[in-house]
Design goal:
mainly alpha
Amino acid sequence: MKHERRALDAAAPIRRARPRGKPLADRLLGAFTLLAFGFILAPIVSIIVFSFNADRFPTMVWGGFSLRWYEAIWNDATVRAGFWRSLRVSATVSVIATAIGFATAYVDYRWRFFGKTLYLAVATLPPTVPILVLGLAMLSFFSTIGLVGTLAGVVAGHVVICAPFAMALIRLRLADMSPDLEPAAWNLGATRWATMRAVVIPFCRPAIFAALAITAAVSFDEFMIAWFVGGFEETLPVRILAMLQGQVSPRINAIGTIVFAISITLVAAAQLLTARRARHEEE
């Protein structure tokens, strides 16, 4: 009993000790992270704020809330045309790039073959190439096949950029699928296409929707390829550059706010789709 009392008395100060606060290194790391995010987001916040400013030039003194710059871009036919072109291009690109990404990821998942490493390297190569080099290469190639100055050329260029993003998302999803599901369906009499339609695609549906959103966001924001290839078929980012070459207009703040809102909505939708599926599987 005496030994037990001594052990309890020795443990009492440990039980009464207050938990120590975060180490100084963790606090400094958190402060640095907040500072970095603030530095990155400050220009975006300023664009959003000044897009509602009634004054023509941004100043520290708020000139009053106004929607005049949004009305100005709505009444600008060139901005409207660029906006609808960007929407059409991004919608088309998202479907084509996701289909190509799904096929590429499925080939990687299902088959083992010689040169597979090279196959994956080529499939993921476009985002690693400097966008200026890629734009010049596409301009040279598309000029020989008559796609320069057309929306089809812009779509083709954006598909090259966006397909690897779709492949990466769907490949991660396929990695979670049991390799025995398809053989089980085949043994039960299902054809390969029926198995694809009833097993693989439903399993990959969250990743497919996420890939549609991500590729649409990437295509909607892309400038360099659209500038090299599009010609007079100006997308919205190209139209913004044309506006910047003249006088600086507060309409650019309004356009930037709309583009940011669309892009962040698509990215958030992709994130929610993947996170919801992960929570559902955990439950």
